[in-house]
Amino acid sequence: MPRLGHYRFSETDVAKTFSNLGMWWDHLTTGIDATAAHIHGSLLSQSLADVLGADVLGADVLGADGLQADVLGADDLGQRLTDLGRAAAARFAGNESSAEAVAALGLLWHAMRDAMESLRRAGVVSTSGQGTVARINVSGGGVPKSAVDRVEVSLGGIVGDRQRSRQHHGRPWQALCLWSVEVIDAFARDGHPIAPGAAGENLTLSGIDWSTVRPGVLLRVGTVLAEASAWAIPCRHNAQWFTDGDFNRMSHVRGPVARVYATVIETGSINTGDAVRIVALV
C-alpha cells in the first residue's frame, strides 16, 4: 500500500487524489484572495508537467528572477491543475504503487498542504473561532450514522467507522467529515426530514460560525488536530433528507451549508461536548 510519511493510500486513493486535483484546488481557492497559494499551485503545475513529460502550455513558472506567481491567471492555473491531475491518473493507472506514482503524489500532497498554510499565514482563511462537538457519528457503512459518546481518531479517520463505498470517500484528505448543527437545524425548520448524522458527517459541531469553516482552516477538536481540505460533494444517497429530493441544497455552491472534509494532522480522541477551536498554525 503506498505511503506518504505515516499516511496510507490505497491504489484507488492515489488515482482519485490525482483525478480530483482540480476540484481540490478549486475548493481551496474559490471565493477568496488566493494569491498567497498561487505560487504553490504554479510550482506544482510545473513539477507535474516535468514528471509526466507534458508540454507546459505557455510560459514557464520558473522565471529568470525566480518563481513568478503571476505567470498563470487563477482560472488558467485551475484548468492546468485539472488537466495535469487527470493526466497523472491516466499515466499511473494500474501502477499507482510505483515509485514514480508515489513521488508525483508526494509533490501534489506537499504543494496542497503548503498552499493551505500560506493562506493561513496571509490571514485569508480564519485562524480563530470556537464551538463544541454536538454529536459524534459512526456507522458500518452508509447513512445515517449513529451517535456515540467517544471515539479514537487515527490518520485514517475515526477508528471503527466505515464508508459504504471507497469510490468517492476515505482518502487521507477525507479522513473526517464535519458539519454544522445550525445548518442542519435550519434545513429541518424548513421542513426537511434531516438530523445530525443523517448525511454521514462524523462530527456535528455547534456554536461555530460555519461560514468560516472552509478548506485551509485548522481545527483542534478534542485532542485531534485536523485541517479542512475540501467540501464534501453531496450525492443521491442524501436525497432522502430533502422533501424535494434536491440534495444539492447542501452543496457549497449554495452558500455556507456544506459538509467539510478534513485531514488528520495529529491523532487523538474526541468526546461529545469537547471544545472545537479554529487555530492559526500547526
UniProtKB/TrEMBL annotation:
Q: What Gene3D superfamilies does the record point to?
A: PK beta-barrel domain-like
Domain called MOSC: residue spans: 145-279
User: Could you state a single Gene Ontology molecular function term?
Assistant: pyridoxal phosphate binding
Q: What is this protein called?
A: Unannotated protein
Q: Which organism is it from?
A: freshwater metagenome
**Top-level taxonomy:** unclassified sequences, metagenomes, ecological metagenomes
